[in-house]
Write a structure and sequence with these properties.
Radius of gyration: 15 Å
Order of helices and strands: EEEEEEH
Distance between the termini: 41 Å
Helix content: 10-25%
């Protein structure tokens, strides 16, 4: 378990293979509730390679000195990420 936001990761390995490879992360908020956006890739066992970039926004709650995952929103493609960015820019620019 992670005791600071910097220690939180979504990387996941099984049987010596990294199935979820974290490429980057940005901590959006810190505190008792922490929000982090991650850029990652999933391992495609059939092709023996990592798939396209994906993104996820996750919320963590700190309890007893450790962060625990509470919710997540997965962004499945760069196209979907661009649409979210466009919508936010439209709302913020108004």
């Amino acid at each position: 378990m992670a005791s600071t936001p910097d220690e939180i990761t979504i990387s996941y390995s099984e049987g010596g293979q990294e199935l979820v490879k974290e490429l980057d992360k940005q901590v959006l908020t810190k505190g008792a509730w922490t929000t982090i956006i991650f850029r990652y890739q999933d391992w495609n066992n059939a092709k023996q390679e990592y798939g396209p970039d994906k993104f996820t926004i996750r919320r963590y709650q700190k309890r007893n000195g450790e962060y625990m995952a509470k919710s997540k929103f997965n962004i499945s493609s760069k196209d979907q990420a661009k649409k979210i960015i466009d919508a936010l820019n439209n709302w913020i620019d108004d």
